[in-house]
């Protein structure tokens, strides 16, 4: 069967990996402009309709836990194709059902199996490029994944206006079918262990949690990501409710913050090519601490009343994060031969768990100024640095290179 050449056709390979990665994020909120129409069509309440979005996040977390063991048992491409097949079946059920409860259950199945590509696209990229362009590809995939959920509601709104709520789910099916066809063109061979039992497969989690070369970048990335997630969960209360910034202007600020991350993530490969892995990693740390420091210092000097200082600090932090995450993902997966799929899934799962915990903590705070959020962001970044230094120090004492 014909396969693409990653050297001669890198853009096509990248496009396929992006398609694999973005189906899950696009499916989260593509149909959200249709929620009122869905509420009317199913004769239900707004609260029940919103479960069609909330349940997807639960499915996303489950997906990240099971995708690794499945891919190691059946192979990365087979797992992707099987997942997208079940995603298509779940989407078909959504299109024909007249029960909101079946709709919600099908959304859970959509999430569990449609998000396989979010993790496996990174593993396949690593296998294809073998460290030569891994940070470049991981950075571009990460940038695309941030763009997808931002533009998806706009696309869904147009589809709702032209047709009705079914249109968004038809688009999901089209994307899944195209991706299934395209995955077969990816270069390389599937590696899998068809004789591995459940015990051997699940043992990968234990092995990874004991692997300092994996846990150091994984935990550092999770905590650093949570530092940025502070803005997502807390800024609307501080800026809109506290400082009475209009939702429109908040949208502009949010776009500026996300744009900083997207541009930095997309350019991470070029920066790494110029500076090298270690210098880029150090530069990312410096930029993140500079951003967190600006946000905290301006908050301390103004009693938490400086919106410009807080936003400036967040933008700087996001630039550092965009350089930091692709490098952490590449470092975590680089040495994994037998549990790369499980490792990729765990990376996302750890990020989601830590971000959820931070969201809960932010909910306990009195968010009437910028100081609580700036303090929480700095604390998380210090924790990331502390854990990284602690694990590497313990590792070096045992005479093992990190």
TrEMBL record:
Domain of life: Bacteria
Keywords: Cell inner membrane, Cell membrane, Membrane, Transmembrane, Transmembrane helix, Transport
InterPro entries from the UniProt entry: Efflux_drug-R_Bcr/CmlA (IPR004812), MFS (IPR011701), MFS_dom (IPR020846), MFS_trans_sf (IPR036259)
Pfam families (alphabetical): MFS_1
Record-level GO cellular component terms: plasma membrane
Key word Transmembrane helix present: yes
Chain segments annotated as transmembrane: 12-28, 48-67, 79-96, 102-125, 137-159, 165-186, 218-243, 249-269, 281-301, 307-325, 346-367, 373-392
Localization annotation: Cell inner membrane; Cell membrane
Membrane topology, as annotated: Multi-pass membrane protein
One GO process term, biological-process aspect: xenobiotic detoxification by transmembrane export across the plasma membrane
GO-annotated molecular function: xenobiotic transmembrane transporter activity
Domain called Major facilitator superfamily (MFS) profile: residue spans: 13-402
Keyword Phosphoprotein on entry: no
Family indicated by similarity: Belongs to the major facilitator superfamily. Bcr/CmlA family.
PANTHER family: MAJOR FACILITATOR SUPERFAMILY, POLYAMINE TRANSPORTER 2-RELATED
Protein name: Bcr/CflA family efflux transporter
Organism of provenance: Parendozoicomonas haliclonae
Gene that encodes it: bcr_1
């Amino acid at each position: 069967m014909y396969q693409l050449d990653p050297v001669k056709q890198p853009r096509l390979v990248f496009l396929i990996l992006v398609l694999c990665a973005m189906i899950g994020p696009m499916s989260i909120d593509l149909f959200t402009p249709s929620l009122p129409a869905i509420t009317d069509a199913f004769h239900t309440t707004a609260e029940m309709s919103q479960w069609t979005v909330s349940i997807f996040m639960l499915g996303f977390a489950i997906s990240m836990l099971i995708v690794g063991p499945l891919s190691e048992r059946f192979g990365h491409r087979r797992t992707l194709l099987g997942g997208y097949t079940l995603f298509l079946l779940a989407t078909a059920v959504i299109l024909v059902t007249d029960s909101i409860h079946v709709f919600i259950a099908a959304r859970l199945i959509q999430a569990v199996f449609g998000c396989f590509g979010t993790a496996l696209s990174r593993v396949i990229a690593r296998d294809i490029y073998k460290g030569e362009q891994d940070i470049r590809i991981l950075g571009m995939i990460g940038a695309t994944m941030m763009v997808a959920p931002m533009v998806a509601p706009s696309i869904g709104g147009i589809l709702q206006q032209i047709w009705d709520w079914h249109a968004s789910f038809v688009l999901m099916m089209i994307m899944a079918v195209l991706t299934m066809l395209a995955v077969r063109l990816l270069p390389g061979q599937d590696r899998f262990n068809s004789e591995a039992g459940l015990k051997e497969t699940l043992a990968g989690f234990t092995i990874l949690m004991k692997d300092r070369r994996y846990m150091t970048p994984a935990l550092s990335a999770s905590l650093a990501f949570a530092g940025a997630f502070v803005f997502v969960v807390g800024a609307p209360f501080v800026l809109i409710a506290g400082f009475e910034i209009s939702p429109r202007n908040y949208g502009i600020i949010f776009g500026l913050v996300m744009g900083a991350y997207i541009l930095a993530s997309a350019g991470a490969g070029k920066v790494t090519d110029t500076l090298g892995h270690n210098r880029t990693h150090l530069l990312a740390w410096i930029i993140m601490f500079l951003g967190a420091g600006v946000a905290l210092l301006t908050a301390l000097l103004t009693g938490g009343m400086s919106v410009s200082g807080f936003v400036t600090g967040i933008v700087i932090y996001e630039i550092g994060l965009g350089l930091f995450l692709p490098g952490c993902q590449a470092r975590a997966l680089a040495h994994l031969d037998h549990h790369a799929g499980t490792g990729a899934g765990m990376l996302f799962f750890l990020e989601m768990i830590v971000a959820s915990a931070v969201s809960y903590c932010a909910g306990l705070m009195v968010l009437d100024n910028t100081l609580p959020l700036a303090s929480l962001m700095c604390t998380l970044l210090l924790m990331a640095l502390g854990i990284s230094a602690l694990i590497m120090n313990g590792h070096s004492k045992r005479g093992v290179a990190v």
